[in-house]
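Internal QA ticket QA-208
Title: Verify multi-chain structure generation after dependency bump
Assignee: T.L.

Test input:
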Amino acid sequence: MAERPEDLNLPNAVITRIIKEAVGSPGWRVGAGRTSRQRGSGSGVRVPGPGPQRYSPALFSQLPDGVNISKEARSAISRAASVFVLYATSCANNFAMKGKRKTLNASDVLSAMEEMEFQRFVTPLKEALEAYRREQKGKKEASEQKKKDKDKKTDAEEQDKGRDEDNDEDEERLEEEEQNEEEEVDN
Amino acid sequence: MADAVAGRDKCGEPRLVSLPLSRIRVIMKSSPEVSSINQEALVLTAKATELFVQYLATYSYRHGSGKERKALTYSDLSNTAEESETFQFLADILPKKILASKYLKMLKEKRDEDEENDSNDGSDGDEAES
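Actual output:
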């Protein structure tokens, strides 16, 4: 799938930002905390969310402010990240194969983290997974609600009619079956 | 690159993951034995990679030499790969840098060793070396 070697690189800008976030922010947060308005206002003030989104500093100690990361170091970290993805995928795939599954799932990735001695990632990852599931659920419910509102008026009457007709048919069929059984017994 | 940055605020909501999922998927799929990946596994891998990047950076800085200068350098990273068991898998892509003169010296020492071995074995290994 990846035909050129550069397809396997991660964008440097994003990597740099992630490192800088570790450098500059007081705590490592799950994205759910900040609203788009806070993020997009351009005021330059980051509003930290309430407590539970932060992870304990003991787990993720930060770089102090203003650490200079050389260009060479940045590209090395980026390469390391690609290798990490491959390593994690390969480990997770082993767990999937053990379970005789073809598709990698979330628990495979979590098991892989433990296998790779990155146990410290498991808790934040589980929290991220929950946040992701909540987000997906929210999206699904929102779209279903929209659909319902749209269909409610037009479908309501038709559905009632349809249900009555189905019942009639079922009754007829039952009667036929009973007759058939009687005939079979006679033979 | 642009899509990753734009993707962050595109829907007007903060994103869980800043790394581009499509790129992560390409890297995951480049592993030949992997057949398919579900979306949750993809999101988790991307998130794990972000944690990894931050952990590698902070770990290398704390154990590194540049604390007084407030700098994180390549050699801090390659030291981490060499010394930490957890980061051992990076040793191949973060090789330690050495001076060319030192390398040549190492090469010469190795050649001398090989020659000794060769003469002991009586094999014709000299041709392979250049």
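Spot checks passed. The domain at 2-97 of chain B is CATH 1.10.20.10 (Histone, subunit A).
Status: verified.
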